[in-house]
Amino acid sequence: MRHQDWMRLALLQAQMAFEQGEVPIGAVIVQNGTVIAEAHNERELRHDPTAHAEILAIQRAAETLGSWRLSEASLYVTLEPCPMCAGAILQSRLKNIIYGSMDLKGGAAGSVINVLDFTLWNHKVDILAGILEDECTDILKRFFKSLR
């Protein structure tokens, strides 16, 4: 599968979040051509500020693999990770992060700051941005428009 195909799976997760009244962000973690975890935002459901799609997907992937080291896995997420999620990406040793839309208010993987590119970390994460950017941006716009 291609990056666009994996991102479409993340968009399906984002749509699930939208339908549940959550900010529509979805994440998928892939290793060796297989999805090992999927998640979407669940902050409202869990009353938990850390229940971001990326965090939940990382937790599920670690459980699936029986290891916190996700060094051969790639994370696909519809919105650029925040600083908290960027930290979790580093800690889980993810190999790659591929995201759709930049977060110009709180992004930590290339827009506002780039936590993942700090040269003194003991782990390097490759970043690819802009995959299905229009679709990833559109679902967020539709969600926030529906709240007004």
Question: Mind telling me the C-alpha Rg?
Answer: 14 Å
Helix percentage: 25-40%
Spans of at least 5 consecutive residues whose pLDDT stays below 50 are: none
Average pLDDT works out at 96
Secondary-structure element series: HEEHHEHEEH
Content-based structural category: alpha/beta
Summarize the model shown.
The active site is at 54 (proton donor). This is tRNA-specific adenosine deaminase. With 148 residues, the protein is an alpha/beta fold.
Notes on the protein architecture:
InterPro entries: APOBEC/CMP_deaminase_Zn-bd (IPR016192), CMP_dCMP_dom (IPR002125), Cytidine_deaminase-like (IPR016193), MafB19-deam (IPR058535), tRNA_aden_deaminase (IPR028883). Keywords: Hydrolase, Metal-binding, tRNA processing, Zinc. Its EC number is 3.5.4.33. Its cofactor is Zn(2+). The chain is α/β, with parallel strands linked by helices and 148 residues long. The protein has a single domain (3-110), classed as Cytidine Deaminase, domain 2 (3-Layer(aba) Sandwich). Helix content is 40%, strand content 20%. The chain is built from 5 helices and 5 strands. The protein has helices at 3-19, 43-46, 53-65, 83-92, 133-147; strands at residues 26-31, 34-40, 73-79, 96-101, 126-129. It has a 5-stranded mixed sheet. α1 (3-19) runs parallel beside α5 (133-147) and α3 packs parallel to α4. The termini are far apart.
